[in-house]
User: Which sequence fits this backbone?
C-alpha cells in the first residue's frame, strides 16, 4: 500500500495510522515461500489428523462412549479451523490485503471466533469428564452408555461459543453507526475495544484456564489421598499377619475348619472366590496408574493451554487499551522475519509511515 493511500486513510478520520493492522505487511521472496509451505503443511496436518479421529469414531462403534463424544466435538471444531479458517487467512497474511469482500470477511470472523472458542470450551469439557472419571468412578462408569447427556453438553458448547463473539461481530457496526475497518482489511469491529476484549477473555481464557487447573489439582489431590490410604492399608495388613499366625497356631482345629469351609465355598462359587480382598488390592495399583496417566494428560493440557493462549489474550487486551501505540503489528512481523531469515543482516523498515 502506498504512502498516499495511507495518508488518505488518516485524513479521512475513519482510522488512524496506528490502528491499522495489515497495511503494507506483505511478504516477498524466500520468506513468502517459507511461510506458504509452513501454513499449507499446518493445514494438511490439522485436516488429516482430525479427519482420522472423526472417521475412527464413525467406523468403530466401540468408541461411541460418552467420554469419546467430547473428543469428537473437539475434532470437528479443529477440523473446520484447518479446512476453512486457516486457508482463508493464508492469502490475507501473506499479501497484507483482504480482497474477498465484506460478506466473506464477516463469515470468516464469525467462524474463526466460533471455532476457536468451541475448541477452548471442549478442552474444559474433556477436563471435567476426566475429573469425574477419577473422583466419581462408580457413577461415571454407570453413565458411559448414556449418550443423550453428552450430546446436550456438546450442543451447549457450540451455543456458548457462538454467543460469546458472533453477535458482536455481526451487529457492532450497526450499533456504532459506521464501520472502523478499512476496505482492504478484515478484523472485528471490537478489535480496539479493550473493555469488551477483557470481558470476553474472562469467559474464553481466564475462566477455562482456572477450571482446567482446578480439575487437574483435584485429580492430583485425589490420587495422593488414595495412595496414602493404600500405603496405610498395606502397613496395617503387614502388622496384622503375625498376630493372625499366632492365633491360628493356638487354635489349629478352628483354622482347619475355617480352611475347609473356605475351600468348599470357593469350589461351589468360583465367582465369590475371585472377588476376595486380595484381588481388589491387586486392582488398586492399576487404577492408580490409570488415574496418574489422566492427571499427567491434564497437566499437559493446562501447560499447553496457558502457553498458547495467554500471550495472545494478554497482548490483545493491552493493544486495545493503548490503541496499537504500545504494541504494533509490524513489530511482530519484523521479529518473525529475523527468526526465519537470520542470515539477513538487516530488515527493511516497516512500510507503515507517518505523514507529517
Assistant:
Amino acid at each position: 500500500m502506498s504512502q498516499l493511500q495511507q495518508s488518505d486513510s488518516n485524513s479521512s478520520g475513519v482510522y488512524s495510522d496506528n490502528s491499522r493492522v495489515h497495511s503494507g505487511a506483505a511478504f516477498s521472496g524466500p520468506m513468502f515461500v517459507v511461510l506458504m509451505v509452513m501454513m499449507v503443511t499446518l493445514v494438511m496436518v490439522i485436516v488429516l489428523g482430525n479427519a482420522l479421529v472423526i472417521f475412527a469414531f464413525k467406523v468403530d462403534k466401540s468408541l461411541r462412549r460418552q467420554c469419546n463424544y467430547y473428543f469428537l466435538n473437539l475434532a470437528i471444531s479443529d477440523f473446520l479451523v484447518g479446512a476453512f479458517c486457516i486457508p482463508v487467512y493464508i492469502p490475507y497474511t501473506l499479501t497484507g490485503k483482504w480482497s474477498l469482500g465484506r460478506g466473506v470477511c464477516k463469515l470468516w470472523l464469525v467462524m474463526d471466533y466460533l471455532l476457536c472458542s468451541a475448541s477452548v470450551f471442549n478442552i474444559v469439557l474433556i477436563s471435567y469428564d476426566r475429573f469425574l472419571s477419577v473422583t466419581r468412578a462408580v457413577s461415571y462408569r454407570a453413565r458411559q452408555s448414556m449418550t443423550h447427556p453428552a450430546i446436550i453438553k456438546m450442543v451447549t458448547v457450540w451455543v456458548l461459543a457462538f454467543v460469546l463473539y458472533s453477535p458482536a461481530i455481526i451487529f457492532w457496526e450497526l450499533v456504532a453507526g459506521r464501520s472502523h475497518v478499512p476496505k482492504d482489511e478484515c478484523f472485528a469491529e471490537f478489535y480496539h475495544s479493550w473493555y469488551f476484549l477483557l470481558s470476553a477473555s474472562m469467559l474464553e481464557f481466564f475462566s477455562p484456564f482456572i477450571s482446567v487447573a482446578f480439575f487437574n489439582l483435584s485429580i492430583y489431590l485425589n490420587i495422593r489421598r488414595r495412595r496414602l490410604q493404600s500405603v496405610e492399608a498395606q502397613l496395617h495388613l503387614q502388622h496384622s499377619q503375625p498376630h493372625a499366625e499366632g492365633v491360628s497356631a493356638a487354635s489349629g482345629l478352628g483354622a482347619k475348619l475355617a480352611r475347609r469351609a473356605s475351600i468348599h465355598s470357593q469350589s461351589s462359587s468360583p465367582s465369590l472366590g475371585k472377588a476376595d480382598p486380595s484381588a481388589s488390592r491387586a486392582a488398586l495399583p492399576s487404577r492408580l496408574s490409570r488415574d496418574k496417566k489422566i492427571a499427567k494428560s491434564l497437566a499437559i493440557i493446562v501447560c499447553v493451554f496457558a502457553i498458547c493462549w495467554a500471550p495472545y489474550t494478554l497482548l490483545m487486551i493491552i493493544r486495545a487499551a493503548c490503541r496499537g501505540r504500545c504494541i504494533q503489528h509490524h513489530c511482530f512481523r519484523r521479529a518473525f522475519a529475523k527468526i526465519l531469515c537470520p542470515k539477513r543482516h538487516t530488515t527493511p523498515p516497516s512500510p507503515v509511515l507517518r505523514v507529517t
Notes: The CA atoms of residues 110 and 167 lie 9 Å apart.
